[in-house]
TrEMBL record:
<dbReference type="InterPro" id="IPR036390">
    <property type="entry name" value="WH_DNA-bd_sf"/>
</dbReference>
<dbReference type="GO" id="GO:0043565">
    <property type="term" value="F:sequence-specific DNA binding"/>
</dbReference>
<dbReference type="InterPro" id="IPR058163">
    <property type="entry name" value="LysR-type_TF_proteobact-type"/>
</dbReference>
<dbReference type="Pfam" id="PF03466">
    <property type="entry name" value="LysR_substrate"/>
</dbReference>
<dbReference type="InterPro" id="IPR000847">
    <property type="entry name" value="LysR_HTH_N"/>
</dbReference>
<dbReference type="GO" id="GO:0006351">
    <property type="term" value="P:DNA-templated transcription"/>
</dbReference>
<dbReference type="GO" id="GO:0003700">
    <property type="term" value="F:DNA-binding transcription factor activity"/>
</dbReference>
<keyword id="KW-0238">DNA-binding</keyword>
<dbReference type="Pfam" id="PF00126">
    <property type="entry name" value="HTH_1"/>
</dbReference>
<feature type="domain" description="HTH lysR-type">
    <location>
        <begin position="9"/>
        <end position="66"/>
    </location>
</feature>
<comment type="similarity">
    <text>Belongs to the LysR transcriptional regulatory family.</text>
</comment>
<keyword id="KW-0805">Transcription regulation</keyword>
<keyword id="KW-0804">Transcription</keyword>
<protein>
    <submittedName>
        <fullName>HTH-type transcriptional regulator YofA</fullName>
    </submittedName>
</protein>
<dbReference type="InterPro" id="IPR036388">
    <property type="entry name" value="WH-like_DNA-bd_sf"/>
</dbReference>
<dbReference type="InterPro" id="IPR005119">
    <property type="entry name" value="LysR_subst-bd"/>
</dbReference>
Amino acid sequence: MCENACMQINWDDMRTILALVRAGSLAGAAEILAVSYTTVARRVQRAEEMLGQPLFERRPEGYSPTTEARNLAAAAERMEAVGQDALRQIAGNDRDMTGPFVLTAPQLLIDTHLAPFLKTFCDDYPQIDLTVRATNTILDLTRREADVAIRISSLPGDNLVGLRLADQQTACFGHPDLISAAEADPSARLDWVIYSGYDAPPKIALAKYPNYRIRARFDEMTSLIAAARAGMGVVRMPVYLGQSSPDFVALPGVPAQDYAPIWVLSHPDLQRSSKIAVFKSSLKGFFRDRQTDFTRLLP
């Protein structure tokens, strides 16, 4: 069925079926494809009418693919992989410092360090069309969701070409008033905001400040930082974040601890690309000059 069906259905409809199988909802597929959810629905209906059978069960929780839809999605995935392989080979042979270039990096790292670097890079190479996807989500470099990824990870991925930019440490920081009170009386109750899934503050901090209260738990770092900045509690975060803002003071007597390093990654097929080689080399020098930002806890 799949071979004949693939010959009848155009590529837009095939990749829409693949996106809907991956996402499980019209909205999710629309986000993957950068189209409206009505476009997704229309393409699926067109494919179903062409084949004369349903491809998805419409359920309240989302779209459940039939066996036929899964087979079509698998075929589309193979076609996608062949196309992406070809595109990576072309991009890998690119010797010009021009054209599109997609970077993905954590938003907070962009806020504190990468923005000035990116300005300089764009000033030096004005014909490069830079797109930055600021997210902690792991984008797929094989599918060319990005050309280069900056990730904070102990295991950045064996199938990628990686360059270790900086080692990191974490420490405990809080609003100056909160830290002053803790330093004056380490036995007094100390308020904390912590990451969701953790039961208590770091043991290394409790050794000096054993009396604590969890004011709130948050599921991402931006919210944790905002809560700590408002004086809601002490928070553990990477040294570069805590020391990049005058709103925070390190909790005295609590040493910094090792944390996942920062990497810049690309697909092996893109090793010969001039844009990527220059970007990674420049980024390495930028981080080398700022290594202490990520590992040294200032007094």
